[in-house]
Design goal:
single chain, about 280 residues, mainly alpha, MetI-like fold, about 75% helix
Length: about 280
Amino acid sequence: MMRSNIHSNSSWARALRHPSFGFGFCILAILVACAVVSVFWSPYPVTDLDIPNKLARPSAQHWLGTDSLGRDIASLLWVGSQNTLLVGLIAVGIGLLVGVPIGLLASAKRGWTEEVSMRAADFTFAFPALLSAILLTAIYGPGLVISITAIGIFNIPVFARITRGAANAIWARDYCLASKAAGKSKWHITWQHVLPNMASVLIVQASVQFAIAILAEAALSYLGLGTQPPQPSWGRMLNEAQSQMFQAPWLAVYPGMAIAIAVLGLNLLGDGLRDLMDPRLSRQR
């Protein structure tokens, strides 16, 4: 027990020493901390309007200033991180829960099952998150659920194709061939050998898709298809800042920086995970 704890501590220390993973993990940890804390506390309520102090510059009272309605920008960013993480987590979760089984089924069965699954994935690629959100908005109206659904649908074929490609490579390895020769079923081999050996690929891809989901949510909110008022959203903050670009340019700078830093952190985290889970890539650098 002690030996396993020592091994896990050394692995964790090695991971944090990796530049990309370390920076990415710190950024993600700060984002998660902000989202969790904002559930219970924020500098100002995001629904409070202070018209006399609208477009105030950064000060001790309002760390990042106020917007055109007198709302505290720091509070809007703080609380807006909740929706950013929520959309990313659920959308990536949808992709994993639906796309991975499809990819595993296509790789295990092969033949017409694989062909039909991959052609269905190709068809879904024709409907990116933005187009899917527009179609769903026309039917159900805009909202956070529409954003999550649209981005989740887009993630399904991504994970299906990644899973199928990685699984096909694993099926050709000796231990899978030996299991087949021993008479084990395809599903037994899939759960015992294929899925565990491709977990690292899925983890890295999930971090990449999380970053893409943040960008997609910001774009949908910017267009008015995502998170609706009074809930704050980084993308909608950018939209609202357009009319004040010359009078108060910081209104666009802060949410833009928040989106860029969040995406950068997740990309660095994914890059670090890829190196740590495949040491050959680290040695090649």
